[in-house]
Amino acid sequence: MTYVASPSVRSYAAQKGVDLSRVAAETGRETLAREDVDRAASGAPVPAPGWTASRYWQVDHAAFGPVEEEALPRFAQVAAANLSAANTAIPQVTHHDTADMRAVEAFRARLKPEAQARGVKLTALAFHVAVLARCLREFPRFNASLSAEGDRLILKDYVHVGIAVDTPHGLMVPVIRDADRKGLWVIAAEITDLAARAQARKVRPDEMGGASMSISNLGGIGGSGFTPIVNPPEVAILGLTRTQMQPVWELDAWVPVPMCPLDLSYDHRVVNGADAARFLSRYAALIGDLRRLII
């Protein structure tokens, strides 16, 4: 593997008896520094993919004031490595839009007595899952994965939606299978069940992975937008933040409208900007007028 190293680093490696070609091949790094030589000489493990062990992390923080250390759980270590690798490997772009939530909130209000009778919590997220499932059918390129070699697109004839759940032990993404074939009540019940079991670390392995696309919902916490990281082998992820009342000009007057920010991050190797804009525009249209779901 080709690599770049300064004359001083090459000399230092020779003194330590370290083969820089081997170090470059094992770490996947194209630019090598003294710390790479030191790590190889000490026999320390190779950093996780996507993690750059540079001098910026090799700092004695206690020299600047009191500190304490907290062990990072194995679950969080794996997630950090995967996110870092994904963010390094994927040319990611985020497209932003907003959705009119009046229809959703009005429908939820009308269904509240039935929801109580069923014992189901009908959240706005259930509507988002249903609409995303419809859009994934209409835009098959978003319901796809790029082959490991990067030369083939794998188009899926199923729609599974991942739901990112914030838990005390880290982020978990259980999956609602065949979301495009399920009604709102079933989707709502599954969201509640999966989220509760994720908090208790009782989600089974077969209930994780295989998502067509995931939703990262921060609406219950706050914010007006963010840039979610694509979770490979998915090619896109939808971020949601808190719905806020905004003035919208309709006919000849300003009208207060609950608007939900939409943040669509996508892999630019598979999806281009125009496709992302069309996808999110269609998504907003469906959320804004639920009757379109049955047309």
Outline the structure in words.
By secondary structure, this protein is α+β, with helices and mostly antiparallel strands. It is 36% helix and 20% strand. The protein is built from 8 helices and 11 strands. The chain has helices spanning 7-16, 20-27, 34-42, 74-89, 102-118, 124-138, 184-199, 273-288, and strands at 92-100, 144-146, 153-155, 161-163, 165-167, 170-172, 175-176, 213-217, 236-240, 244-250, 253-267. The strands form 3 sheets. Strands 1, 4, 7, 8, 9, 10 and 11 form a 7-stranded mixed β-sheet that branches. Strand 10 (244-250) and strand 11 (253-267) form a beta hairpin.
Features:
alpha+beta, Chloramphenicol Acetyltransferase, 295 residues, 8 helices, 2 domains, 11 strands
Helix content: 25-40%
Low-pLDDT segments = none
Average the pLDDT over all residues and give the rounded result. Answer: 89
Biggest β-sheet: count, sense, barrel? 7 strands, mixed
Task: List the helices and strands in order.
Answer: HHHHEHHEEEEEEHEEEEH
How many runs of DSSP E, i.e. beta strands? 11
Reconstruct the topology from this structure.
Blueprint: H1 7-16, H2 20-27, H3 34-42, H4 74-89, E1 92-100, H5 102-118, H6 124-138, E2 144-146, E3 153-155, E4 161-163, E5 165-167, E6 170-172, E7 175-176, H7 184-199, E8 213-217, E9 236-240, E10 244-250, E11 253-267, H8 273-288
